[in-house]
Amino acid sequence: MASRPPVADSDVADEAVRSTCDDASICKRFATSQGYWTDPYIQYFVRQMGERKAPEINRGYYARVQGMSHLLDAFLKRTQCDCQVVNLGAGLDTTFWRLKVCLNYKLIVVFLYHFCRTKPPLSKPLIETHSADSLLLDGHNLDSDRYCIIGADLRDISSLEEKLRKFQIITELPTLFLSECVLVYMTPEQSSRLVHWVANTFHTAMFINYEQVNMADRFGQVMIENLQSRQCNLAGVDVCQSLDSQERFLLTGWESVNALDMMAVYGLLPQEDISRIERLEFLDEKELLHQLLQHYSICWAVKDTLSLGISQIGFLP
């Protein structure tokens, strides 16, 4: 009997990173089941909700989803939906189905094809202008007028650029890049090349990045150790030491950059909805929520060649 070929350490690490997508999706489905927000599509991507999640975890995901959605919706409003959206490392993300009215929306992802083909609520928006058979280009890519799935290694810029151009991305069109816990798994050099390529390639663009912050303290070190025990190495953690670290975007061609930790974002979300979600579950140790939210952040960088006012996007007090 032939033995299995050895698995490279890098392959194991990459697979461990990809598994975090499943973890996040399970947490999101559980939070939606508790009424934190509505997502009728996540049920098609996550069959089981797993064990009950702590209230601070549910509130943390609520802040993450609402914060990212707030900036995304503001960009769509400023561009009047005449734009592209590229979701880097999107995993089992359901944003497209919420935004299916935006015809130029594009998404970079590897894992969604099977679900799109076999679940009518997901496939219907894709086949309004295509036959079902015309959607698949190969085993890792799917294309329609509204939605595009591309399998790509974000550390390989030349390959990424080639695939995006193959799917007819328009560099002159305002383009929003979304990144949730993606750059932190790349080395600072790799992530800098990526964000520099975006700024250098797209005339008018916005880059929204959600990831860890304040990782030098004990809470942050425990987070790092827990991920390392799962063979998830935060290769980019050196640029997650503080919000000031996000000035790296200014060094890679972006005109402006803003960053807030998630505790600040949580406090700037609509207070009526905050009051609603805080009634869903009793939270005994509020300090746990504060610690959690202080160790994640949203950063948004802007390049506004067309003077659309996207540099004014943010969170109002």
UniProtKB/TrEMBL annotation:
Keywords carried by this UniProt record: Methyltransferase, S-adenosyl-L-methionine, Transferase
A GO cellular component entry from the record: cytosol
Organism: Electrophorus electricus (Electric eel)
BP GO terms, sorted: methylation; regulation of signal transduction
InterPro entries on file: LCMT1, Ppm1/Ppm2/Tcmp, SAM-dependent_MTases_sf
Family statement drawn from the similarity comment of this UniProt entry: Belongs to the methyltransferase superfamily. LCMT family.
GO MF terms held by the record: protein C-terminal leucine carboxyl O-methyltransferase activity
Name of the protein: Leucine carboxyl methyltransferase 1
